[in-house]
Amino acid sequence: MAQIIVSTTLSSHMIKTLRILIFTLPYITFGQAFEAPLPVGESSSTAAPELPEVSALSNTEIYSSVVRIECSTQVFDYKQPWTAGRFGGGIGTGFLVGKNRFLTNAHVVSNARRIIINKRGSDIKHPARIIHIAHDCDLALIEVEDFSSFVGLPYLKIADNVPKLESEVRAVGYPVGGNRLSVTRGVVSRIDFRPYSHSQIDMHLIVQVDAAINPGNSGGPVLQGEEVVGVAFQGLRGADNTGFMIPVPVIDRFLKDIEDGEYDRYVDLGATHFPLFNPAMKKALGLPENSAGVLISDIIPDGACDGVLERGDVLVKIDGNLIDNAGNIEVSGEKVLLHEVVERKFAGDKVDLVFMRDGEVMEESITLVPFPASRVYAISYDTKPRYYFKSGLLFQPMDFNLFSVYKINNPSARHLYQNYIDDGIFKTREDLVVLTTIFDDKLTSSLSNFEGLVVKSINNTPVKSLSHLHKLMEIQDLPDFLEIRFEGTKKPLILPTSELEEANSRISTNQGITQFYNL
Amino acid sequence: MRSLLILALTSFFLISCGKEEIPPEPDGFIRVNATLQEFSEGQPWDRKPSVQRRGLGALLPNKQILTTSEMVAKQVYLELESADGSETITAKVVAIDRDANLALLEPENKDEESFLDELKALELSPALKIGDKVETWQLENNGQTTVTKTNIYAVDVVNTHSGGKRFFSYLLKGSLQSASNSYTVPILSKGTLAGILTSYDSEDQISEVITSPIIEQFLEDASDGDYIGFPSLGVAATKMLDKTFRDWLGLEPNEGGLYLTRVAKNSAAGEAELQVGDVLLSLDGHGLDLKGYYDDAEYGKLSWTHLIRGSKEIGDSLSVKIKRDGEIIEKKVTLRAPAPLLIPNEFPPTGPQYFIKGGVIFQQLTKRYLQAYGKDWTSRAPLNLLDVYYQPENYEDQFEEAVIITGIIPSQNTVGYESVRNSLIKKVNGVDIKKISDLETGFENPEDDIHHIELSEAPYEIYLNAEACKQVDQALVDQGLPALKRFTPSEEAPVEEEQETDQGK
Hints:
By secondary structure, chain A is an alpha+beta fold. Chain A contains twelve helices and 31 strands. In chain A, the strands form five sheets. In chain A, strands 24, 25, 26, 27, 28, 29, 30 and 31 form an eight-stranded antiparallel β-sheet that branches. A six-stranded antiparallel beta barrel of chain A has the order 10-11-12-15-14-13. Chain B has three domains: about 220 residues, Thrombin, subunit H (Beta Barrel), CATH 2.40.10.120; about 100 residues, PDZ domain (Pdz3 Domain), CATH 2.30.42; about 140 residues, Alpha-Beta Barrel (N-terminal domain of MutM-like DNA repair proteins). Chain B is built from ten helices and 29 strands. Chain B has a six-stranded antiparallel barrel. In chain B, about 45% of the residues are buried. Chains A and B meet through helix 6, strand 17, helix 9, strand 29 and strand 30 of A and helix 3, strand 15, helix 7, helix 8 and strand 27 of B.
């Protein structure tokens, strides 16, 4: 599962409540380290501790395949979407997993303008580029333009399984505190299903370790022996010795997903469930007191379960795994959420469901489908914000980035956004278009009350998307007045058609807007 | 302006007016002491810790005492105290209007002799004009009267700091001292009661006063022992300062008028078939300007709401001129008592309406409940409930009172339901829940000993074991829960707001 959390947890406070911080290091904190005198000649051997495991590769060999990634970024400005945005950058870690294939975190190379890879102990900056990036599981595969300097370095092997609780691991990378490679050790403290903070909305398997994982470690391998058991990626603010890594199943899935040359994202069951602990509820549903299963509370329209499951069904088995009353299944001795089954699958794959309806046992197989609409709840990267500017009015489609930048308070707008998927609003409205800004001008000076509202119609035609709105507003023979209506308010916004063009050039000149839309 | 006479002044200054001690001639002021206790939003059977509030009241000729509603709303005990503090008697509320911020009290036992008999009652003064001199009367701890002379520098139709509605008020300029009975300060003119001061801003030294004409209407209404309230048209209207918007509506450049954004169901305006989008041009021949002011013969520019709340009574007719699709339409409207709000602002005076079944707490949704989400409740309260609050017109066909689950008292009976709250209740055992008292009917007929509750949010249905419910509820009573329900007749629900609204935000 990935995108299901949506409606219940979404709020303007979401970023704050997750309290997870990503471990890329911004340039600012690293500036000093760059200037510090670098001891010459004192290289590799000091860093490698002895390992008890017998490995075919020496530590030096392993560490030589762990590289430092320097990324210059360009973050788009949603308040001025026509501008280039804000420039910045950060440091992270990556490691070689195949010929000219470096695995790292998506957040290390997100919004990248330029990526540089440094080999261990070398100052040579190797220009690199992204091959595949998966924001929903925070993984990316990058390559250098010229691989010749890396030939001969070992490819680190991804382990077969999730490491055991309490087993020892070491994290290798380039975190704060110096320029050279760092190795920290610890044990696996917890295996859980948790949010990935990079996109804010996706949840996957996660492994917590008590080895120090610090800013800059991001994208680095967490090793057991010479095998990679995870990719270090995030920490928890306000807690000690809690580092998190992306475990093998998630890495494997990513690597498999891109085999066809394209990353297709996670798929989702498209149903939410409610725990089935209450004896009266079980009795009413015609179930014995000790029966397994969870209550299906919502079906996402057009999702994988739409048309198969119904609200009120009791889901008992998923791909042969018995579901307990909390919604967990047992996978290799560990209790995990039932979504773990779907986690390892791809669009087009089948999932077998056993469920109870009206006291009858039913068996159906569903086909997993991609569900791009749910990305309105995820932070988006690498894409230039979409907008449409006309005569001092700035229209933008509602998504997570917009929601967090503009602090949209209007209850109708928030309610629509919250129910966008669950209520199937996405089926008729490709975008919820928000009038985000009204730039001051004699034409618009008394209109500021309309900021932050979702557009309902233009001259009584319901608005389906940003490009639809653009089309409606650019019609050649508009009536004398442009009548824009909004969700949740009764008073429309009226503009005189004859003055639109003049106002448009006047305001865009003032604001330095040269590009009027990106649809 | 809400700093209700909580003055930070330790020494006493006067800027534009004089202060003089006058001999304690018999006069109609008494101290009013109230013990107020609010109800808990989460545990509606409980009250929060009590607070004491001390204010003044003006003795009226019929031995009733006029004070502000703010003094006595939520009161659990009320007493009247003589100026010198030597005598006290218990009092009760005869009439209260939270919107006008007025309340009428009388001794619990009216025929009993008391210190009231020795006081000279106050007559109401006629309406005053701008520039008229008035006196502010306060009592010192020792029973001495402090009189501050000042004058009316303006009149306006302002919020009375209680119900959210606006009433005709005098504005006074001049500094006041912080006296021991700061809530409710009588204002006198030539020995008669000119109004009651409700707020004082110590920075600007401006006070707002509920005026004698408003008080007079309040007293007249209350005189038969059955207080109804001020009349209402039942609309919300907004200004149209944007020229283009006015052009679009076909208004002349200098033509005024307000744009109607809401017409309440079961209101005078609703009955007269006013519509959202109509332009309100004039009331009883008084044309409204761009900002909704009309020219009052006496006071100059006043807000349109005064033509309803300051000049009319329930049942009076009002001629309304509107513009719809470029056409002028005149209507005769019969003013009504304000229609009850779908989501009332306050708990009923007797306390929040609630019902408990098997440890599940049901409550009527009120604004007070939403406000328990804190200062920024408009962004923190659950969106589905905010939607009902902001868009009542979408729900008023479904129910008269919004009933929600506000909490679950954990027990074996409610295991698994811990996360269920803030969902609207649609049905119980097949019975539509249109108001909270319907729950009682609904829970009478469980099927197969199981109660079936239908909700508007996931999980959409929950079930309770009827037998277990009885035991849990009995245990709750045994543990000291005072009652398993509190219903209030719906007439007592607070009332429709009638004011200019800000659009959207």
